[in-house]
């Protein structure tokens, strides 16, 4: 049988180890996030980089550029921001809307859903 003192020591040791594991996971996640954010100049092969008005970076597959929804986003971007001198393409919506657009494009939704989304885009996204 284990004494109460020894049991308390083991419990403290396990708590410290669990805390270290949590910190290690958090640090590795933050490092990976930071590494992703530092590489903002070059897009991956077959992708185009766009930014939302809140500064979030999205790598969009080149195949999406011919989609009606994305073409409309690019036209809205041109109307609102013109040709930026810093070379960034800024989409006039926030990151949540852009994530939704990417989800729609990934799933290859029907033309009816695309039309309904386009009708909601008549009002600015931000």
Automatic annotation (TrEMBL):
<dbReference type="Pfam" id="PF02519">
    <property type="entry name" value="Auxin_inducible"/>
</dbReference>
<protein>
    <recommendedName>
        <fullName>Auxin-responsive protein SAUR36</fullName>
    </recommendedName>
</protein>
<dbReference type="InterPro" id="IPR003676">
    <property type="entry name" value="SAUR_fam"/>
</dbReference>
<comment type="similarity">
    <text>Belongs to the ARG7 family.</text>
</comment>
<dbReference type="GO" id="GO:0009733">
    <property type="term" value="P:response to auxin"/>
</dbReference>
């Amino acid at each position: 049988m284990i004494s109460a003192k020894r049991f308390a020591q083991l419990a403290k040791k396990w708590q410290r180890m669990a805390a270290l594991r949590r910190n290690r996971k958090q640090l590795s996640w933050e490092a990976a996030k930071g590494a992703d954010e530092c590489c903002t100049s070059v897009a991956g092969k077959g992708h185009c980089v766009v930014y939302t008005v809140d500064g979030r970076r999205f790598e969009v597959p080149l195949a999406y550029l011919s989609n009606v929804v994305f073409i409309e986003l690019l036209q809205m971007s041109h109307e609102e921001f013109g040709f930026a001198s810093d070379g960034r393409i800024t989409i006039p919506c926030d990151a949540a809307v852009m994530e939704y657009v990417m989800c729609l494009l990934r799933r290859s939704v029907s033309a009816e859903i695309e039309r309904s989304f386009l009708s909601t885009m008549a009002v600015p996204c931000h």
